[in-house]
Amino acid sequence: MTTETNGTQEAAALRCFGAGDPLYERYHDEEWGVPVHGDAALLERIVLEGAQSGLAWITILRKRDGYREVFEGFDPAAVAAFTEADVARLMDDARIVRNRRKIESAIVNARATVALSEAGTSLDALFWSFAPEPRSVAPGSWTDVPASTPESAALAKALKKAGFVFVGPTTMYAAMQACGLVDDHIAGCVAARG
Question: How many domains is the chain partitioned into structurally?
Answer without folding.
Answer: 1
